[in-house]
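Now read the record:
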Amino acid sequence: MYVSTAVEGTTVRIAPTGPVDHDTLPALREALRSLPPDVDAVVWDLRSATFMDVAGLHLLFGRAPEDGPFPRTVGVERLRPQHRRLLLLAARVFPGLDVAGIIRDGSLEEAA
């Protein structure tokens, strides 16, 4: 897995290449841990993420102490169809999950 990060002021864009799954979750959490302390927003760019499973949901919605200081806002953009299906399913199973609130580019509506 390759992970690129781009810091823009207090926002960082993280773009994983390859699957977002249980095996790659530690590397993605390491990307969060290595962020500068003044970063207050993380945007996940998923255009090159070939697959995402429940580990991706944990990354987007589950705050682990090892992820670094919070509160940080989390966003996601450039969803692939498989990512959208997973997020829509998560929204149905967990109605309190603010899936629409993390979408930064309207890509969730493309799947509706």
Notes: The two ends are 30 Å apart (CA to CA). The CA atoms of residues 17 and 48 lie 5 Å apart. The longest strand covers residues 11-20.
